[in-house]
Amino acid sequence: MLGIETSCDDTAAAVVDGDLHVRSSVIESSMDLHRSFGGVVPELAGRAHVATIGPVVAAALDRAGLDPRHPAIDGIAVTAGPGLIGSLLVGLSAAKAFALAWDVPFVAVNHLEGHLFAPLLERPDLQWPLLTLLVSGGHSMIVLQRAPGEHEVLGETIDDAAGEAYDKIARWLGLGYPGGPEMDRLAQGGTAGALKLPVSMTGPDLDLSFSGLKTAVVRATEKHADVALADVAASFQAAVCEQLLRKVRGALERHEVAGVALAGGVAANSLLRAGVAQLAREFAIACHLPSIAMCTDNAAMIAAAGLYRLKVGGPSGLGLSARPNWQLADVP
Ligand code: KG4
Ligand code: ZN
Fold this sequence. Notes:
51% of the residues are buried. The protein has helices spanning 31-34, 42-63, 85-102, 111-122, 162-172, 180-187, 211-223, 229-254, 270-283, 292-295, 300-313, and strands at 2-5, 10-16, 22-29, 76-81, 106-110, 130-135, 140-147, 150-156, 259-263, 286-288.
């Protein structure tokens, strides 16, 4: 299966075998074009995809040992949403064109479902049901997966995504974009108790919220202008992770699962990884912390979800449009 992913700033293509073995995974990021704007500029992202989609697909096929002109593949999986419309359309149009040219089926994949398949690529023997905390720059949700492709969203953010909160606070502190990795690094040398920050959403439901915390950080740093950057990062990181881990604990108390997994860019966070591993030990269940390459956007996870969707639902029609607001609850 050839996977194609162009929902945001990364142009990605990958080849994955039927047994979920990743034969190649190529990612070309346009982040350098966006950095000085402090966020992804949709028009620039779309144009970068147009320039790179051909070479990236050719490289993925070549690295998988396939002829880029006439590859022996059984299908093409492509992200149809959610994401930026101008970016999605590039990958989707390319996938349709390749499917026609090579006479293979193509199947539309939901980007979030792709993230949910990522842990499987590194642990094909994974046991179900699985509780997954999916935290990225655009989404934050707690998902119960009874089996591959059978998911229920138990809770999600009512305002900012966790990664978005990291990026906004990093920007407020004058750090680069995206700010998550730098904040995480700084936090490791800071004191979490330095700023008194609220932990939001302490009720029993499993929804998340980060906008109150964001405002609290801004207020606290205005009031204590002399506080060290590392201490702000550590205090913020502790509050974000405490909220996320409380909700994962709440979900584990209510649902009996065989394992817990992290997915999405924020899954790279050191404190969050340690906290989820600790919860897994406490509940005596398996812990799936994908490698950083599998946490962030890639096309191998799209190919993996596509293998499943093609098997259960058959190919998508060539008339299919991009779905920029495609919810996980509306899959397939
Ligand atoms: O999944 P992803 O690569 O892209 C999408 O948003 O779909 O996630 C990117 C997000 C950014 O907001 C980035 O700041 C955040 O993940 N991030 C982190 C870390 N590494 C990346 N946030 C906290 N700690 C990290 N170590
Ligand atoms: Zn993503």
